[in-house]
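fwd from M.: "can u put these together and see what the complex looks like"

so here's what she sent:
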Amino acid sequence: EVQLVESGGGLVQPGRSLRLSCAASGFTFDDYAMHWVRQAPGKGLEWVSGISWNRGSRGYADSVKGRFTISRDNAKNSLYLQMNGLRAEDTAFYYCAKDASGTPHGVMDVWGKGTTVTVSS
Amino acid sequence: DIQMTQSPSSLSASVGDRVTITCQASQDISNCLNWYQQKPGKAPKLLIYDASNLETGVPSRFSGSGSGTDFTFTISSLQPEDIATYYCQQYDNSPPTFGGGTTVEIK
């Protein structure tokens, strides 16, 4: 069974850091690009970042550029999102999603259940 | 960034009704358009990719059409399990962008 399981969310103060992880199973992880997508409480979906299969291509939403870093460890079948300088507006449910191809085009065909990040003092 | 405008933002229909949602892109995106379903408290699920291709395992009552800037998503016969919010999303240009969502309820 294809599965993505996010972890690492929690309550954090503004300005602090948090690292999200996504463990993949049931497919050949290093064949596919991966994404992070978030959803603020009661709001719609917002793409955050994507990374190609070989880490050669990475992209970020303007809202997180310079603060968030996406990475992956293909040997561990894992995707990460390092979030620095967190702001209240980063409060959201964060989903890990698999792309249907090796480049992060944006056809997200498998999603994890998500992890909650709350930024508050 | 490409803006995706979905309408309506919500709708109420009876079981068995035909339901149509539209999505308009701020510029030509060819057929680089996906539709997702998100049930309450759940993760999004890909239903339609490349504007009109049904993802494996998705019931055939769901369909999509369109190209360029104007797209349509249709549920041919609404079922109780279709209660959800539906999002369009373009991937022609980075960053991928989503429409605001359409919440479908049963009348």
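replying to her w this: The CA atoms of residues 7 and 78 of chain B lie 17 Å apart.
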